[in-house]
Amino acid sequence: MRRDQADDECAPTRDEGRRGFLKCAAGMAGAAAAVGLGGEAAAVPASRTAAGLRADGQLPDQVPFHGRYQSGIVTPQQLFAGFVGFDVLAENREGLTELFQRLTKRSRILTAGVKPQDEQVAKEAPTPDSLTITLGVGASLFDDRFGLSGHKPRHLKAMPAFPDDRLEPPRCHGDLSLQICAQHPDAIVHVLRDLARETEGLLRPRWRTDAFLNPSRPSGSPRTFIGFKDGIVNPDTGSAREMDRLMWVTPPCGEPEWALGGSYQVLRLIRFHIEKWDKLPVDRQERIFGRRKASGAPLDGEHETDSPRFRDDPHGTKIPLNSHIRLANPRTEKTDDSRFLRRSYNYDAGFDRSGKMDLGLVFCGYQQNPERQFATVQRRLQHEPLSEFVTPLGGGYFFILPGVRDADDWFGSRLLEKV
């Protein structure tokens, strides 16, 4: 989609920017999203998934803001999340630098637990609420406005429409992506209100969706609104070798030097056709996924963490050859490098104009190379049986900036100071 086309369809004028941002922060209707509902990966030992948790198994109240990588990526998932795509209104590189520095300053303060202005009269003590704020840049930021065209990450482009997509332009792309995660939903709104005040005239919201995790019942991975467990398996975030192979941009990747320590983010707003799905017998649903609905176990196993034995079932007698888990991750040596980290959330946007429930998934995937990983998996999932019951409507490709190293650093400093 061309930038001028996007502006015509979903963006207010610059004078309306602040009003649009505040309207967005007050609650634009959620979108729908995503790819396959779970590009599968190798099982992660429980000790690894606990990385970043307190000794009692809970998230720390304050997640460190500074570091080599941004928080909110391998951080254990908080209960609530907000995802926003923005267009940048700054007119030159100096304005863009000011925007990034303001975003850094406020993110550093808010994640430390200092109250935003709208809450300062409240008597309750401030709390960090396990807040993380994760900033990414879209391909459109590297046009001719800021002199960045020669510094774009190698694989960053506008998210293409795959064969089963019905992408809606107002719900796609953006110069920036913002992922805000916390343990309570009001924290998401407080952050957006705060950033609206601090970035007035520099940012305009393009799309937004709020999302949440469903609780595990009775245990194990949480479920989506189509009733199956999601995120059962992921790359091992406790393994530096695995992360350098699948997640982080490293020197062998051939990316610009400023991008080292970053990661590619794929956001997909997926709507579930709940009424149609609910008419299917459970055994049919299970064969579409390749897993048991009650336990999450593969159809040839007993527990959700069991690895499916595809080699022992070459004709798909137990797990159909076109099942979601088999297409998403065939578990072969050749397809191992297409795995990526999923950090998805559910959304509920009420009813649409026809009276149907608007439920779905905000698919969020992190990886080293979206063409080698996400797009490769998506092509394997093309026209899978599940595609009849889910429709990707929006989202985008973004590059998550390297982490803010210390109190003197800021988002995008290595990019903008070296250009």
Care to give the gist of this entry?
This protein is of the alpha+beta class and 419 residues long. The protein has helices at 3-10, 17-27, 46-49, 93-111, 185-198, 240-246, 274-277, 282-289, 324-328, 371-380, 413-418; strands at 80-88, 132-137, 176-182, 203-212, 263-272, 341-342, 345-351, 357-367, 390-400.
From the alpha carbons, calculate the radius of gyration and give it in angstroms.
21 Å
User: What count of domains describes the coordinates?
Assistant: 1
Approximate shape: globular
Mean pLDDT: 88
Helix content: 10-25%
Quickly count the helices: 11
| Helical/strand content category | alpha+beta
Distance between the termini: 27 Å
Major beta sheet, specifics?
A: 5 strands, antiparallel
Strand content: 15-25%
Keywords: Heme, Iron, Lyase, Metal-binding, Oxidoreductase, Peroxidase, Signal
Family: Belongs to the DyP-type peroxidase family.
Protein name: Deferrochelatase
Enzyme class: oxidoreductase
Give an account of the 3D structure.
The protein is an alpha+beta fold and 419 residues long. The chain has one domain. Helices cover 23% and strands 17% of the residues. The chain has a 5-stranded antiparallel beta sheet. Strands 5, 6, 7 and 8 form a 4-stranded antiparallel beta sheet that branches. Strand 7 and strand 8 (357-367) form a beta hairpin. It is globular, with a radius of gyration of 21 Å. The two termini are 27 Å apart. The model is unreliable at 1-36 and 38-51 (pLDDT under 50). Its main location: other.
Tell me the layout of helices and strands.
Elements: H1 3-10, H2 17-27, H3 46-49, E1 80-88, H4 93-111, E2 132-137, E3 176-182, H5 185-198, E4 203-212, H6 240-246, E5 263-272, H7 274-277, H8 282-289, H9 324-328, E6 341-342, E7 345-351, E8 357-367, H10 371-380, E9 390-400, H11 413-418
Antiparallel strand pairs: 1-3, 1-4, 2-3, 2-9, 5-8, 6-8, 7-8
